[in-house]
Amino acid sequence: MLEMRPDCERCGVDLPADEGGAFICSFECTFCAECADQLDEICPNCGGELLDRPARVGAALKKFPGATERRFKG
């Protein structure tokens, strides 16, 4: 199951689990659309491809909320 990390690792912008606009690699490194575009959709941590993260909504979000630990080191 995806962690649904709450923020962009590069700029710190909020990325709610129930909204689109987040991009992840296979290790779930998480970036906003703007940062993913600036990175040419390649993860700077592992070199993997950054893909659209699906949103988690409704009952699934209630039962399995997104992570709360922020990854941005600012």
From TrEMBL:
Pfam families: DUF1272. InterPro entries: DUF1272. This is DUF1272 domain-containing protein. It comes from Sphingomonas lycopersici. The lineage of its organism: Bacteria, Pseudomonadati, Pseudomonadota, Alphaproteobacteria, Sphingomonadales.
